[in-house]
Amino acid sequence: MPFTFSHPAAVLPLLRPLGRFGSLSALVIGSTAPDLSFIVPMGLSRAQTHAPAALLTYCLPAGLLAYLAFHLILKLPLLRLSSGSLHDRLCQVAAAPLATWRAVVASLLCGALTHLLWDGFTHQGTVIVAALPFLRLPLWAGDGYTFYVFSALQQLSSVLGLIVLAVWLKRRYGNSTGHGSGARDTEIAFASRTAAPLRPRLRMAILAGFVVIPFIAGLLVAFAENPAPVTASDFRFFFASFIFTALPALATTLFAYALACQVWRRAAP
Question: Best-predicted range by mean pLDDT among 133-147, 150-164, 254-268?
Answer without folding.
Answer: 150-164
